[in-house]
Amino acid sequence: MDFHDPTAPICWRLHLSSPPQKVYEMLASDEGRARFWAESASERDGAIHFIFPNRLEWRGQILERRPPQRFAVEYFGGSTTTFELEDDGAGGTDLFLTDGGVPPADRAEVSAGWASVLLALKAAVDFGIDLRNHDPRRTWDEGYVEN
To answer: How far apart are CA 42 and CA 12, in angstroms?
Structure first.
């Protein structure tokens, strides 16, 4: 990822021990997203209604579904977040996240936020652990990373 170019998409990679189908189900289902991403992330009429611990809400259109390789959604500020999943040849998954269209003023926070979300995904899908605290008094806004 180019941290110096404020117009470049945010890009992260993550290796998971779980197979692509299992990872895809975490991204593409209400139950999966609620296990690592948001307190609630229910799909209705082709969009996801996210509710976060700090009570922030966002509704983003699902832009693409191609199980088990690709899932894309409109995210904060109208950015486009795409998850690409590749079989690693050993039963696991290489995940590639891109988030394009993030306003330059939000880039640092969004980059850090994706690192937090992706590590929570790894803990949930590979180990069945929820790293988040679920406490509305202890959120990203107050400097807690386990949001």
So the answer is: 24
